[in-house]
Amino acid sequence: MSETVKIPLNPKYKRIATEEAYAPPEMLQMYRKLYESRTLDDPGFDSLWGFYLMSMAPRPVAIREKLADLDLIRIADMDATGIDHQIIALTSPGVQVFDRATAVALAQDSNDMLHTAVQKHPTRFTGMIAVAPQAPELAAQEIQRCVKLGFKGIIINSHTHGEYLSDKKFWPIFEAAQTLHMPIYLHPNTPPKNMIGPMLEAGLDGAIFGFGVETGLHLLRIITAGVFDRFPALQMVVGHMGEALPYWMYRLDYMHNAGVRAARYESMKPLQKKVSDYLRDNVYFTNSGVAWEPAIKFAQQVIGVDRVMYAMDYPYQYSSQEVIDLDNMDMSDATKKMFYQSVAEKVFKL
After folding, report:
1. Tens digits of residue pLDDT in 175-219
2. I need a surface site. Which of 20, 87, 271, 327 has the fewest CB within 10 A?
3. Which DSSP symbol is given to 306?
């Protein structure tokens, strides 16, 4: 986690990092109590937060410190890596791991904490709204409240106790997001209990693989449930180069069409467009955690340069070398400016 290379700001573009995490100290304490109580029956949460809360290895110790800071430590880390601005969101699983009442109250408190930090550093921070999907109507009200406070997006840390936003009971969240022109960032969570077993036993449940599988599945469920047909102006954001979905687009279109024609699944109904069309029209992609030129260029080619943007994935993946590598990508200054700055300014209305 240590940095030895200080990167200056770039005069040709701003570096706007769009998937940057924080965690109120109160929430981390609640995570610790939940983990130690062993009452949740969520092996993914135990694996993820058992490590980040309890390990004394240098990386998790640094991450705990950086997550809880919305002031001098974070600003210094941004300055060291040449980051002009962070779009900040509540770390996974956010409030979605708690009961309904606790989640609703904690979402409000967390949003207020982030709002205070944004007010203190308005040129450096922008906030995303944390909500409790456990209470969809109250989540919609919290979105309305926070839009008035200047928040620019909504964070959903994927499934909530194994339930997905494709279930229509959650759609008031989508309605509020579309009405208020707020993008929803669909961020990974560890796979739920009925999915995680083979990954966990191989050490593949987290960011190495399980996150992407689980979140890619979630976005596909949203698409195939007809969410974007019902809410055509809704815009979503996914990280980690689209959780591999851009690479799968041809096969997704072919097999979805075949499944609909065969009436194989009761849940798979005709859509107004192809799966790949929704990925191009309703989803933005960040490279969070994937500082790899070939993957970025592939997404720009198949999705469009106007839908791919930069993210560092701070503090989980904090590396000055990655910024240097992306600065040195073989692409025009105009395209690089879109990647680092212009797309983010459009999506988050900066």
Report:
1. 999 999 999 999 999 999 999 999 999 999 999 999 999 999 999
2. 327
3. G
Q: Show the domains of the chain with their CATH numbers.
A: 16-24+68-347 (3.20.20.140)
Cis before residue 93, ω within 30 degrees of 0? Answer: yes
Cα 68-95-130 angle, rounded to 5 deg: 80
pLDDT number for residue 4: 56
Closest CA to 274 of 307, 309, 245: 245
- Cα–Cα dist 312/88, whole Å: 11
Residue 126: φ, ψ to 5° = -130, 140
Please check whether residue 90 is in contact with residue 157, taking contact to mean a CB–CB distance below 8 angstroms: yes
- pLDDT tens digit sequence for 64-80: 999 999 999 999 999 99
Comparing C-alpha atoms, which of 283, 265, 161 is closest to residue 222? 283
Residue 33: pLDDT over 70: yes
The β-bridge partners of 16 are 85
pLDDT at position 2 = 46
Compute CA 46 distance to the chain's CA centroid, rounded to the nearest angstrom.
Answer: 20
Of 69, 229, 313, 330, which one is the catalytic site residue?
Answer: 313
37: pLDDT strictly greater than 70? yes
CB atoms within 10 A of CB 317: 17
Strands (E), 176-306: 184-186, 236-238, 283-286
Q: Tell me which amino acid residue 309 is.
A: M
| Contact present, 92 and 187 (Cβ < 8 Å) | yes
Gap between the Cα atoms of 173 and 1, Å rounded: 36
Does the pLDDT at position 3 exceed 70?
no
Q: Is 311 helix (H, G, I), strand (E, B) or coil?
A: coil
Q: Is residue 224 pLDDT above 50, yes or no?
A: yes
Taken in order 207, 213, 217, 219, the sign of the CA dihedral is positive
- Whether 306 is a known active-site residue: answer no
Q: Tokens 């997404």 appear where?
A: 299
Output the pTM of the full model.
Answer: 0.97
CB 15 within 8 A of CB 340: yes
